[in-house]
Amino acid sequence: MGVPFPKNQPMRLYASLWEAEHWATRGGLEKTDWSKAPFTAFYRNYNVEGCVWANGKSSCPGNSPWFTQKVDFEGQKKMKWAQSKYMIYNYCTDKRRFPRGVPAVCT
Question: Would you tell me the Gene Ontology cellular component terms (predicted)?
């Protein structure tokens, strides 16, 4: 479109809710309680580690952004803990949805 990405200014975060009861719920095992609709989502303890921009310069150390850095062993342990406690569906292991192989992002 020819419009530069707004990387040096404040941004907002938006999300959407969608019905995925047939594929994102362990094959339909997790049911949506539609009697609770309309649903409201909110962010709790949301924190972004952004870099402050002033006079065209970033306060980030180094040249690479934080999200391109490798996750260390301790970070991997925390991620595995969160996955085991909260994740109910992983499309990278959904052989029924992807009988010909999982998406490339999973490999």
Answer: apoplast
Cβ–Cβ under 8 Å, residues 53 and 59: yes
Q: Are strands 57-58 and 53-54 parallel, antiparallel or unpaired?
A: antiparallel
Residue type, 88: I
Note the Cα 28 to chain centre separation in Å.
22
Structural contact between residues 23 and 97, judged by C-beta atoms closer than 8 angstroms: yes
How is residue 80 annotated by DSSP? H
Q: Which residues pair with 53 in a beta bridge?
A: 58
pTM above 0.90, yes or no: no
